[in-house]
Amino acid sequence: MTGDTLLRVSDLKVSFQTEAGSAKVLDGVNLTIGRGEILGLVGESGCGKSTLARSVLGILPKNAARITDGTILFDGENLLERNEAYLARVLRGRRISFVPQDPFSSFSPVFSIGDQFMELMKWKSPEITDAQAAARTILSSRYGRARRRRDAERVMEMLSAVQLPQPEAILRKYPHEVSGGQRQRLMIAMALLTEPELIIADEPTTALDVTIQAQILKLLKALAAERNVAVLFTTHDLGTAWEICDRIMVMYAGQDVEVAGSADFFARPNHPYTDRLLASLPGAEGGLQGIPGNIPGFVSPPGGCRFHPRCDLASDACRTTRPGVTALGSGHAVRCHHPLGTQFLKEAVT
Amino acid sequence: MKLLVILVNRLAWLIPTVFGLMAITFAITHIIPADPVAAVIGENASPEQVAALKEKLGLDKPLVEQFVIYLTGLLRGDFGISLYTQRPISEDLFARVPATIELSVVTLFVAIAAGIPVGVISAVHRNSLLDHALRIFTVSGLAIASFWLAILFQLFFSMYLGWTPLQGRVDGWGPDPITGFFIVDALIIGDFEMLGDVLAHMVLPVLTMAYPAMATIVRFTRAGVLEAISSNFVMYESAMGFPRRVIIWKYVLRSALIGTVTQIGLIFGILIANSVVVETVFDWPGIGRYAVDSILNSDYNGVMGFAVFTGVIFILINALVDILHGLIDPRETR
Amino acid sequence: METIRFILRKFFEDKVALVGLVIITALVLVAIFAGVLATHPGDVSTFHPADRLQGPSLAHFFGTDRMGSDIFSRILFGARITITIAVISVGLSVLIGVPIGLLAGYYNGWFSDLLMRVSDIFLAVPQIVLAIAIAQTLGPAIENVILALSLTYWPFWTRLVYAETRACKNETFVEASVALGASPFRVIVLHILPNISSGIIVRTTLGMGSTILTAAVLGFLGLGPPAPSPEWGRTIAESRQYLPNAWWYATFPGLAIFMVVMGFNLLGDGLRDILDPRIRRSKSNDR
After folding, report:
1. Which H or E run includes A334?
2. Mutate to test the interface with C, among B28, B83, B229, B317 (most CBs of C within 10 A)
3. Is A251 helix (H, G, I), strand (E, B) or coil?
């Protein structure tokens, strides 16, 4: 872990009201990110990683979702104890910003790109102090000409930083007039413009062509490192995570199962699910193995470790109690009653 | 560039539509078996009198020739001679246009000013008690016969309470006609007492006409906002901490309205339909009132003149609305 | 059978549609049994000048009109006229509009284009304007009102059916039956029509409401059935010269129009929610 801890999520439980009953989408999740660190949050679609990302941002759907337990400490303050106005004015967009999955529909189609950049700067410019942001009223939302000019310069600098040619021309365009890759560069620019400490990037490359994905990832990594911005990066693609993450955390069905530094993660997976996940990668030994069984439902999920119905090593303990965190050294931790690590250690010895 | 294509398309569509409208009105008067001549001079006229009138009205010529005469007349703005007043219909209509336009524009303004906020609030608080109450209010607006509503308003506000004038555009003669729009004319001559009187006369007809128009606007706005509010850009803007009111009243509303701008034509249709009866009840000297007078006097030419005139205006408005939609929706034109 | 049961269950869950259905059922019953329900069944054609313009009382629930006739009874008989006009003119519009829409939608070619252009011209003008022109030419009578409304209303169905047929034509099951050699008639009647029927049903229900309003306007303007017909619009027009004293004269017929139109609109909105899966989905999303 580099530097001190920026974000610490502890024992977070979130449920959604559905017609079938209450779906326990997050079941006691822990997560930490240090300043300037890129953490990859990996898991299959529907494992709760987007819910986790949205919980941190505080934008879960109000009428359907409920946080039942846990804390989200950002820079030492518990966000769950803060009111919505404070989160919206001071945190969101300013200290924590967001890169969405689909850069096309995340722009309003009926305002020019420049308008939407300036709207962001109007409310979230780094020139605004926390106190000013917190005290925002309709009267104080004036956008003076001097600040507007300086903000416009910031925008132009940032557009060249994300390697967009002809920034003036792009700002005059509408979102449907630029390519998918350019739109995601614009989204990254918006996320960085407000000089945040944490960027939450929710599958930022899933909607893009494979050829463009790598460029965008490299860009995000370089710019984050340059500015010492931490990134919470969710993806279902281990290859992507490998390319840009300092650490990787795996989730399964709303539970965190393993976290490790990138190199360590690929070298010594300890949770049976992680192991299976790696084995399912093309090019892995034995090649392309699926994981038998399906992701369980969230309304009445399996007790204990939710992976146990699909796990070869499952024992009675797995069915009744959720395993605690086992630290394996150098930031590697696993939540499993039967971690595979011992086997690897044996191999390492012989 | 794309805007030019829309423009050309709309104009190319305009010509056959107007032509078709004229063909339909011609067919109604000349092919439907009815005898307008008998209606004018009565059943007891001698055959010579009938023949003379037929010749005067051009009804003795072959149908095709009559149609050509009818068409060329209309294209020159000649709607024929009123069978009742014996004056050119176009003169009567144009003299009455400002009264109808003034009423419609003020109505549209009121309906939009009330309908859009109500639609947004209804959508934002969907399925709340407020939403249900507003929906009952709007559904009622679409079920009320406007002539009945007009009479109830008169009965209550004018006759019982005496708050508003019973009918007419103004007490006495009104301002000297400069533009024909009394509000504008009163402002030009700076007669604020007159302005107040003009506005007082407008209150009830405007409210009557605005209610169903507003109900339509509320429905479209509510549906548009509900659709836009589930867009990804709303989620993104919330995640970036944009103020809620900016997200709703700027981004969501703009998206919702662009989709519903094309419905302005429909609302104009409602206004035109209601103006006929509302102008009758409030004795408002507009073209709707003219149509009803023509009906009462069995003036076929007058009724047809009204039908062609409002039809053409309605077609033009719809074409303008389409072009407007192209102008304000960047996805259409760029 | 399953779908019918599903629709019925949905229907009873949807209180709004149910209220609409109750109102319309009541209207139909009133129209059929007007002779039995009316307190003064003879008052459609007989007059009692001595009793003219009496306020509401136990003898005359809704008061009496300028001829001394019982307004309550006349409203009940007016329901017959309203129902007749609405059912026949909407029925005729459907009978004209739907086949044209099906044909124009199924076949490509200049004739389809021509049919659609013609219906677009009708749609380019507010219905009431053309209806007034036709009704005026034909003269005041119930059958002329029906004709004026049908002649101006069919293009609404043509538009709807045309669009849905076009969409339906490209569905796999239609293409498959065409490939299997089914005749166009068979394809249209057995495959396309059932699939677009829910849209037609919803439109027809809502169309009944708007037709009743338009018919009332024609009646109000004196273009409906002539005096002494108890048609609601005409009754309201008659009442105007007796205001403000005879408030009941205008109020109750208008209330009758409002209730009936409301009934059809509620039923139509409810049916749309139940029958149209696209809208149903978006509706459940917004909950």
Report:
1. strand A333-334
2. B28
3. strand
A137 by DSSP, 3-state: which? Answer: coil
Q: How far apart are the first and last CA of chain B?
A: 8
The answer to whether B175 and B116 have CB atoms below 8 angstroms apart is no
Q: Contact at 8 Å (CB) between B203 and B104? A: no
Answer whether C117 touches B (CB < 8 Å). yes
pLDDT in tens, C215-272: 999 999 988 888 788 899 998 988 888 888 888 888 999 999 999 999 999 998 888 8
Alpha carbon dihedral C233, C239, C243, C244, in 10-degree steps, equals -70
Chain C: closest CA distance from residue B40 (Å): 12
pLDDT tens digits in sequence order for chain A, 350 residues long: 445 889 999 999 999 988 788 888 999 899 999 999 999 999 888 888 889 999 999 998 888 888 999 999 999 899 999 988 899 999 999 999 999 988 888 999 999 999 999 999 999 988 888 888 888 765 556 788 888 999 999 999 999 999 998 999 999 999 999 998 899 999 999 999 999 999 999 988 887 888 888 888 889 999 999 999 999 999 888 888 888 899 999 999 889 999 999 888 888 888 988 888 888 777 655 555 677 777 788 888 888 889 888 888 888 888 888 888 888 877 889 998 888 865 544 444 43
Window from B74-78, B244-248, C132-136 with minimum mean pLDDT: B74-78
Give the integer Cα–Cα distance in Å for A23 and A299.
4
Chain A residues in contact with B246 (beta carbon < 8 A): 119, 123
H or E segment and range at residue B201 = helix B192-229
Looking at the complex, does the CB of residue C267 fall below 8 Å from at least one CB of chain B? Answer: no
Contact list in B for residue C261 (CB cut-off 8 A) is: 142-145
Provide the sign of the torsion angle of the four alpha carbons C57, C63, C68, C71, taken in this order. negative
Residues B145, C213: C-beta atoms closer than 8 Å: yes
Residue with tokens 């560039």: B1
Chain B: which residues have CB within 8 Å of chain A? 231-233, 235-244, 246, 251, 254-255, 258, 328-331, 334
- Complex ipTM, two decimals? 0.89
Residue of C nearest to B140 (CA): C262
Cβ separation C125–B307 shorter than 8 A = yes
Closest CA to A224 of A201, A250, A249, A248: A201
Tell me: the pLDDT tens digits for B253-287?
999 888 778 777 778 878 887 888 999 999 999 99
What residue type is B174 in one-letter code?
Answer: G
CATH topology of domain B98-299: MetI-like fold (1.10.3720)
Q: In B, which residues are within 8 Å of A106 by CB distance?
A: 232-233, 235-236
Cβ contacts of C233 on chain B, cutoff 8 Å = 145, 147
Q: Answer yes or no: do A110 and B330 touch at CB < 8 A.
A: yes
Give the span between the Cα atoms of A193 and A167, in whole angstroms: 15
DSSP string, A142-184: ---HHHHHHHHHHHHHHHHHTT-S-HHHHHHS-GGGS-HHHHH
Strands A198-202 and A96-99: parallel
Structural domains of chain C ordered from first start? 19-37+60-286 (1.10.3720.10)
CA distance B127 to A343: 58
What is the amino acid identity at position A79? L
Q: Are B32 and C138 in contact (CB under 8 A)?
A: yes
Angstroms from B58 CA to nearest CA on chain C: 18
CB contact under 8 A, B258 and A107: no
Q: B20 CB near a chain C CB, below 8 Å? A: yes
How far apart, in Å, are the Cα atoms of C175 and each of C4, C63, C168, C171, C192? 27, 63, 10, 6, 11
Please report which helix (H) or strand (E) contains residue A256, including its range.
strand A255-261
